[in-house]
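In the design runs reported in the main text, the only information available to the sequence generator was the tokenized backbone. The following block is the verbatim input for one such run; it is reproduced so that readers can re-run the procedure and compare outputs position by position.
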């Protein structure tokens, strides 16, 4: 299986909804497991590790805990050394205190570890709501890191991806939050393999990367500035890699060979596509990811859990199609064009 040598790279993978099931908002998620696993094999074939059960898989956006547990089990069973999974607190409903948050996290960490996958400690909406001081974050994360069997990845997801995470680490001031985050990482560095940062701020990421303790990786989660950040030294854990895997694989191969001109040339056309998919409201980016998987024949229907296929407009999707074609990311133009025409017919066009 292909691997990269210069960077550790994860693609955050989407789930494929069962198109014949009731996946409307508020209903339990019904997943097409074979199509979902087939997509992970596609990502592995291009050299990517898979970050599973993350926000790209619609955590906190329709993928309930029952379906998430099955996703973790099945994905890790296929390739445990190539999978890390998100552990959060989204099984909680209603108001939750800090002990509830801790217990929920510990349950999910145990599920991931029992499956044999690496642990990604996701940012928690419930912790953001319950915490009153930065010390609350230090206490919870310290307890969690004491329980991981091997070093984990910490996930800092900005409020553009989830408004419920505003003020994470105890402050809405990014510099103050960063100081608390670095203190936490420094105190627990032996238990932290890396940190995944999704703030869409290139300068902040470069400074944070330089401030991390030796041996702790910075995984960029910046779907706007990933080419330059990876080139300058960040590793990567990105939702956009789900959509651009073949082209990104070629670029990373060039980077491994030290051919920076080829790396830049190959990745450059993907940036406009990524910025379109992740445009505000950014948390709807999953719709564009699934749309491209459908256009490229990786799944039979453009349907998502929680009915999220309706989150973007037809003009938005048309532009995603155009930009994907310009970036060399449409595997079968005739199939994609036929599927685009069928979608437009639904809209009466």
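Verbatim output:
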């Amino acid at each position: 299986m292909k691997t990269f040598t210069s960077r550790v790279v994860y693609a955050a993978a989407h789930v494929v909804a069962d198109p014949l099931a009731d996946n409307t908002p508020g209903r339990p998620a019904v997943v097409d497991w074979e199509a979902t696993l087939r997509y992970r094999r596609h990502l592995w074939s291009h050299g990517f590790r898979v970050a599973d059960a993350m926000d790209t898989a619609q955590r906190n956006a329709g993928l309930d805990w029952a379906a998430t547990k099955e996703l973790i089990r099945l994905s890790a069973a296929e390739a445990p050394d190539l999978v890390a999974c998100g552990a959060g607190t989204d099984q909680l409903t209603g108001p939750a205190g800090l002990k509830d948050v801790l217990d929920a996290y510990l349950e999910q960490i145990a599920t991931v570890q029992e499956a044999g996958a690496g642990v990604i400690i996701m940012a928690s909406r419930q912790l953001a709501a319950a915490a009153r001081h930065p010390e609350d974050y230090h206490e919870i994360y310290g307890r969690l890191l004491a329980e991981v069997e091997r070093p984990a990845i910490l996930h800092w997801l900005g409020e553009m991806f989830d408004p419920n995470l505003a003020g994470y680490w105890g402050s809405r001031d990014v510099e103050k939050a960063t100081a608390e985050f670095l203190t936490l990482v420094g105190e627990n560095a032996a238990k932290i393999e890396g940190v995944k940062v999704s703030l869409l701020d290139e300068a902040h990421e470069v400074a944070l990367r330089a401030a991390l303790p030796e041996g702790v990786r910075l995984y960029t989660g910046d779907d706007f500035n990933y080419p330059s950040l990876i080139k300058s030294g960040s590793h990567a854990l990105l939702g956009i890699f789900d959509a651009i895997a073949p082209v990104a694989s070629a670029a990373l191969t060039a980077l491994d060979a030290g051919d920076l001109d080829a790396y830049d040339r190959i990745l450059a056309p993907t940036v406009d596509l990524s910025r379109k998919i992740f445009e505000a409201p950014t948390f709807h980016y999953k719709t564009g990811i699934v749309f491209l998987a459908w256009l490229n024949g990786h799944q039979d229907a453009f349907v998502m859990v929680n009915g999220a296929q309706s989150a973007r407009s037809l003009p938005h999707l048309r532009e995603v199609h155009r930009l994907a074609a310009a970036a060399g990311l449409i595997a079968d133009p005739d199939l994609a064009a036929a599927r685009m025409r069928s979608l437009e017919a639904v809209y009466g066009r």
